[in-house]
Amino acid sequence: xxxxxxxxxxxxxxxxxxxxxxxxxxxxxxxxxxxxxxxxxxxxxxxxxxxxxxxxxxxxxxxxxxxxxxxxxxxxxxxxxxxxxxxxxxxxxxxxxxxxxxxxxxxxxxxxxxxxxxxxxxxxxxxxxxxxxxxxxxxxxxxxxxxxxxxxxxxxxxxxxxxxxxxxxxxxxxxxxxxxxxxxxxxxxxxxxxxxxxxxxxxxxxxxxxxxxxxxxxxxxxxxxxxxxxxxxxxxxxxxxxxxxxxxxxxxxxxxxxxxxxxxxxxxxxxxxxxxxxxxxxxxxxxxxxxxxxxxxxxxxxxxxxxxxxxxxxxxxxxxxxxxxxxxxx
Length: 330
Ligand SMILES: [Cu+2]
Hints:
- By secondary structure, this protein is mostly beta strands.
- It contains 6 helices and 21 strands.
- The protein has helices spanning about 5-10, 25-30, 55, 175-180, 225-230, 310-315; strands spanning about 60, 65-70, 75-90, 95-100, 110, 115-125, 130-135, 155-160, 165-170, 185-190, 200-210, 220, 235, 240-245, 255-260, 265-270, 275-280, 280-285, 290-295, 300-305, 315-325.
- Strand 16 and strand 17 form a beta hairpin.
- The chain binds copper (II) ion.
- Copper (II) ion binds next to loops.
C-alpha cells in the first residue's frame, strides 16, 4: 500500500467528493489506499453506509427502556452490541469501523441524575471490547479490567451521577485503536430540575485514519465529513440552542469549535448551572465535553467549524440555517 499523506489526499481531490452523491467510485478510496475489495466493504453482510444519518443523529437521544422500582427510582436499560461494520464516510471513501450498535458515534444515551442505569453490553465482534463510562460507579463497573471476549455479554449497572455531559468509550488496549476505530458515544445525565427549554443538538467531534498511518485523513462532527455543509442544521431565530459537544478525536492533541456571528455560554462538562465562559471558540482535548448555549437573532446561513483550519478543510465544517419558519419543534 502506498502511503498517502493527508495533504496529498487533499490535493488528489478529496474535497471534490464532498456532498456529491453520484459519480464517485471506489477508485477514489483506492487513491487513499483504503479497501477496494468488494468483500472488504461488506462486513458481516451489512451494506456499507454511514451507519448514521447525520441530520437525524443531532437530535437522536436514547432514553432506554424505562421501568420503576418499588421505591420509585427510575430504571433505564440500554442494549449495546459491539460489531464491526464498514461505513462509507463520503461517496467512495470506506472505513472498516468498530461500532456500538453498527454506528459511529454510538447512540447518545440519556438519563436523569439518580436514575438506575443498566447497560446490557454484548460483544459480537472478533476482538475484546468494553464500555467505560465517565461518571461515578463501582470499580467493577469501570469497563477496564473486565474485558468482554467475543460472543460474551457484560451488564454494567450504576446510578447516573453526576449530572452533566458524560461520554463512554471502549477501554481495551491499544485504546487509541479502539477509540480511533469508532467505539465511543455521548452520555447525557440531565439534572433533576430540568434545564431551560431549548433546541438541543449532539455534536461528537471525530476523525478517521483511513489509510492506517497513525494520523487522520478526514475530520468531522458526527462522523460524516462536510455533512452539515451539504445539509445545514436548521435553527429557529430567537430560540435557545443547546449543543452537547464532545471531543473524541484520536491522534490529534486538540480539537475546537468556532461559531460565526455569535457567542455561546460555556458550561464546562455540563456540571454547573452557571456558565463559566462567554466566547465563540473553544479548544478541547480528547474526552473533554461541554454544553454550549446560544441564540441567533438574525436569519441566514452561519458557518461553524474547527478553528484548526486544516481540520475544517478536511471535513470538520458545517452550517446553521437560521430561519423564522420551517424548523421542526423539539
Ligand atoms: Cu474495543
